Amino acid sequence: MKTTYFADIILPVPLPRLFTYEIPEEYITHVELGSRVIVPFGKKKIYSGIIYALHDTKPEDYETKEILSVLDEHPAVNEIQLNFWHWIADYYMCTLGEVYKAALPSGLKLESETKVHYNQDWLPDGTLTAKENIVLDYLAEKKVATIQELNGITELKNSLPVVKSLLEKEALFVSEKLKEGYKPKTKKIIRLSEEYHKEQKIQNAFTDLSRAKKQLEVLMSFFTLIGGAHPDNFSKTIDKNDLKDRSGASSALIKELVKKGIFEEFDEQVSRLSKSNDTLLGVHTLNQPQQVAYDSIKQQFEDKNAVLLHGVTSSGKTEIYIHLIKEQIELGKKVLYLLPEIALTTQITSRLKRVFGDELGIYHSKYTDAERVEVWDDVLNNKNYKVIIGVRSSVFLPFENLGLIIIDEEHENTYKQFDPAPRYHARDAAIVLAHMHGAKVLLGTATPSLETYQNVQLKKYGLVELFERYEGIKMPEIVTVNVRDEVRKKKMSSHFSSVLIQQMNDALEKGEKVILFQNRRGFSPYLECNQCSWVPKCDYCDVSMTYHKQINQLTCHYCGNSYALPRVCKACGSPSLQTKGFGTEKIEEDIKIIFPDAKVARMDLDTARTRKSHETLIGNFERGEVDILIGTQMISKGLDFDHVSTVGILNADSMLNYPDFRAFERSFQLMAQVSGRAGRKNKQGKVIIQTSNPDNPVVVDVINNNFLNHFNSQMEERQAFKYPPYYRLIHLTVKHRNANTANQASDYLGEYLRSIFSHRVVGPQAPTISKIQNWHLRKIMLKIEPGVSLNKIKGLLRDAITTLVTHPGFKATVVQADVDPM
Ligand code: ADP
Ligand code: ZN
Ligand code: ZN
């Protein structure tokens, strides 16, 4: 009896399930877990998906369709990855399809708008149906069309069965773009055929070609390029384009020589990624404190899977990472080096490149898709890369044999993905990933997160400390300026205290550089009517618009909506509108007035949106072409600059007063990190913190560089108010286009959850920003005490959400879960 085999497939749809398809006979022998397949979905769609399971059980509740095509000879995704995806989906309460979408570069998937291509080389074999002819006629002309477009042809209506049969006949193809994305770029190479490796043969060739002058010239050029017609050079190869350039020959002319059997032409893989040409420098020798730290890390790895390297800014942590990476490579293992942000990769990458050269791969979202596919392919097939440096999505690369994961700046909240799902924390996911590989984890930072430091205290993680900067450079001197006093004494110019201006003056006179930190971009946060206090708000979101002077527009930082500045108040008609508060753009404008001769640059989301602009900004500052760098938190992150002597933190209050239970923790981190930019290599730096509350305990801890005191006092508060890391949080966001329905649905869900979880449920509440892009948002928070099984709670939550979204009264309600929200 014939057995039918089935595959359960992960598809990029937000349904919490897998989809079962029948495996056509011809594929049965070579389908594997993790292979990419193309399948029809519903009546009108085609998707690519990943095989998650193989079996011979026919599903009972629906008719299975057949897989259209299997894209990979060898799986594009390995089994550890499938387990990892499963963990992410489970822990972060999302679907495998959502993880799949986030994990694979788009070059490896068919997106929803699938295109079919016309196969120009195809010759009809047998008769075609009328519908097949319609599709072929259409495509013969257009060459490529989406399934949707084909469905629009009136005589056709549903093109899928027709497309399917044409795919089988190979008259069309859908997968070529995918395979292209996956296939490395190649170049044409020319070499002498083996037969001609004898000098006698060459002599004959010269004689034979004496009447084909042009071909002879090509052959001569070839010999020049390989360094002469000497047997030592006969096996050398050259780029076909070089030969064309040198000899002026056409492809056809070169082909003549291939036909005669003198040349051979073949494809060689070339990288889309730039190769380093620098000579490699060895690693630096570690100084004594670094060596002690290094030894201690290795010793603690004997019985701990994770170790925290808590080292002040500039203590030489990166240098220790480099030594650990080197060691793993020598052991034949791979290393993943995680960074919180692209902003950081530029500097660290060039440091690592100098040591690891082409064994270093880089992976982040500013890379083109083809480049990302190439990195994926390299890692999958164990080609060049031994160490990958990347941002959060690089935890999804198809690693095998991972020995170590370094999580640099582990405290950074950019490790957490907010939107879309999976809302994962790359640090926490990386720890799970390392466990699956039997790899070790090194977390590094000058300002540990409470979560990580608690794990140290619980002895789950090891701890290594470095309290001295490399080469004994002093920690900066930090002082506060009470802006309230300064204002009273009329000593503020614009947003700068007299103390700061004086200090900047001194620094600039000595040719030193200055960094000014303002955690807000734009010109001013908002515009206000002097008559009636009206403030322009976004039409789609419940936030005030930020004024950007350069483009003279109001912009919403939540949805990007922007419009021209109104000339009069829309509420009372008064022309007296005033900007309130200040952002980096305003600081830049004012500072240029105060220091007209200084070269000023600004680094924030507006000026450093692209990889290039960002690299340029950092490069300019590194080369000393900028005197004053103004920036948002972007400049706080581990950047290592020479000659910065002065750092000004312009408005500490706005950070400290931010309405979030992590505000103090964040403020400590930001202030300590920004201060760390001062006085790196040449002398002690000076940091000036402007605040109206110099006695704030966070400010005091920053000044004294007292992490432990900060940690202890924050932990006390978290425990008292039932927050992480003592309690676990899960946020549910109920979304609806209609405010009333959003209220009713969230009330319903809140009641329902309270009946199961009682006091653990907080809300529903309208969040501070209760409308984004015309979606009305309501939040419900779950606070889960230590010792309760999260799995059980998540199971009940999933059921509750399903009950809500399938309730006829709450059609089109969306519920998003965020586990361990930041
Ligand atoms: P961190 O990562 O802790 O901020 P870095 O590793 O960036 O510190 O070190 C700070 C500076 O000191 C860098 O410019 C680095 O090149 C230099 N440095 C650190 N350790 C060494 C060493 N062992 N030999 C030479 N230079 C070092
Ligand atoms: Zn008004
Ligand atoms: Zn908006």
Characterization of this structure:
It catalyses: Couples ATP hydrolysis with the unwinding of duplex DNA by translocating in the 3'-5' direction; ATP + H2O = ADP + phosphate + H(+). It holds the Pfam family PriA_C. By secondary structure, this protein is an alpha/beta fold. It folds into seven domains: 6-104, PriA, 3(prime) DNA-binding domain (GIY-YIG endonuclease, 3-Layer(aba) Sandwich), CATH 3.40.1440.60; 112-179, Winged helix-like DNA-binding domain superfamily/Winged helix DNA-binding domain (Arc Repressor Mutant, subunit A), CATH 1.10.10.10; 185-270, no CATH class; 288-417 and 431-470, P-loop containing nucleotide triphosphate hydrolases (Rossmann fold); 477-520 and 584-711, P-loop containing nucleotide triphosphate hydrolases (Rossmann fold, 3-Layer(aba) Sandwich); 524-581, no CATH class; 728-819, 2-Layer Sandwich (Alpha-Beta Plaits), CATH 3.30.70. It has 27 helices and 34 strands. The strands form eight sheets. Strands 14-15-13-16-17-12-18 form a seven-stranded parallel sheet, with helices on both faces. Strands 19-29-28-20-27-26 form a six-stranded parallel sheet, sandwiched between helices.
